[in-house]
Amino acid sequence: MSFESSPLPCSILLLAGGRGQRMGGQDKGLLEWRGQPLIAHVQRLVRPLTDDLIISCNRNHDRYAPYADQLVGDDCPDFPGPLAGIRAGLAVARQEHLLILPCDVPQIDERLLADLRATAQRNPLLPVMVRQGEFWEPLLCIIPTHLKDQVERAWEAGERSPRNILLQLGGVGLECPANDPRLANLNTPELLHPRTGVSE
Q1: Domain spans of the chain?
Q2: Which element (helix H / strand E) includes 11?
Q3: Residues 182 and 112 sit within 8 Å (Cβ to Cβ)
Q4: 147 touches 127 (CB < 8 A)
Q5: What is the CA radius of gyration of the chain?
Q6: For the chain, what is the largest distance between any 2 Cα atoms, rounded to a whole number of angstroms?
Q7: Element (DSSP H or E) covering residue 102
Q8: Using H for helix, E for strand and C for coil, what is the string for 88-101?
Q9: CATH of span 3-192
Q10: What is the pLDDT of residue 3?
Q11: Spatial distance between the Cα atoms of 173 and 150, rounded to a whole number of angstroms
């Protein structure tokens, strides 16, 4: 199945709003990997999938704007974590499902996204997350946007873990191999540039 033939319309949220602690405070989505910013690799892959591409960012808005149809930011200071970006995306998404990806997984591929969408289509009222055995990847997921109020209530009750919330909402797993290279998080200088260990 190609992207274009996938029957599940999705808004897409790329998470680039973190403080980049493991990168020395740099804006991770704008760091280069193989000659382009991380955000460019992920955006190029998902652009054919949607007419509602959202990027969650808290700085460098002018640099992220060309990659997105909408930009969102956290509604509270101090980088409260990825759930803040997910809430912001759910609030503005124009489709009935929101596909969420972090900016630092540039090796994801068409097959993974097609499988994620097919799983969501079979479970249209439930969130779907990538899972590797007992380990869930809650930032690689699809959330039906009708759940946004329940996500908001959990946030207001003090929950900050996307994994906990999505499991409480009946999260379904898309099983991937334990060492699936497509899921590699390039979230340290050493992983981003393994030969030199030097960040951009």
Answers
A1: 3-192
A2: strand 11-16
A3: yes
A4: yes
A5: 16
A6: 45
A7: strand 97-102
A8: HHHHHCCCCEEEEE
A9: 3.90.550.10
A10: 44
A11: 20
